[in-house]
Q: What sequence folds into this?
């Protein structure tokens, strides 16, 4: 699957806010968005002076922002939306819950990776187990009661140690229980919208895909 491999700070500038795509580095380094608070490219400053953005533009930017935060490309993101739309409840909230339940996000939320990108790398390199079995698929959906752990041979690798030692790592959310000593965590319940610390307007994504 194709992934963006360019400077992630450009993505933050495009969305007009810090997306914390570099993990702890976002707290320790001066972000380019603070020096150049406009979209990247030769027309970035000119675009900032144009007329007010349309409703469609706001919807599109919100979708792109969520995709970039979770590191998901268009096709799997659309597939998650289609599943969320067929579930009971509010579609936008169902979508965010599905994104939060991805294995790469769970590893990140537990503090075993400094960013979702690093968490995906740990999973791809077979350092992560779910219920005692190695899982190398970052999009794997974790269910309540599932145990996620760093494999015994990988407990002390540098990325995991550095992430757990970082003072600026994200606070563990209430729907996850983590034992840092054993590098083990458990999803104790499915999160609700109030449990997801994300400043996004998911309803705009629903409106965009419903057209």
A:
């Amino acid at each position: 699957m194709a992934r963006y491999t360019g400077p992630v700070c450009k993505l933050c500038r495009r969305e007009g806010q810090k997306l914390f795509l570099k993990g702890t580095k976002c707290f320790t380094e001066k972000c380019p968005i603070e020096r150049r608070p406009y979209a990247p490219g030769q027309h970035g400053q000119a675009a900032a002076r144009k007329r007010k953005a349309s409703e469609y533009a706001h919807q599109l930017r919100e979708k792109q922002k969520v995709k970039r935060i979770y590191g998901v490309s268009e096709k799997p993101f659309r597939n998650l939306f289609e599943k969320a739309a067929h579930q009971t409840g509010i579609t936008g909230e169902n979508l965010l819950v599905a994104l939060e339940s991805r294995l790469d996000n769970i590893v990140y939320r537990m503090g075993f990776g400094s960013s979702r990108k690093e968490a995906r790398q740990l999973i791809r390199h077979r350092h992560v187990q779910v219920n005692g079995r190695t899982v190398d698929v970052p999009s794997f959906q974790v269910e309540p009661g599932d145990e996620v752990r760093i494999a015994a041979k990988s407990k002390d690798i540098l990325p995991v140690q550095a992430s757990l030692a970082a003072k600026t790592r994200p606070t563990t959310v209430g729907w996850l229980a983590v034992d840092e000593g054993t590098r083990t965590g458990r999803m104790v319940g499915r999160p609700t919208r109030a449990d997801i610390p994300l400043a996004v307007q998911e309803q705009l994504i629903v409106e965009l895909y419903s057209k």
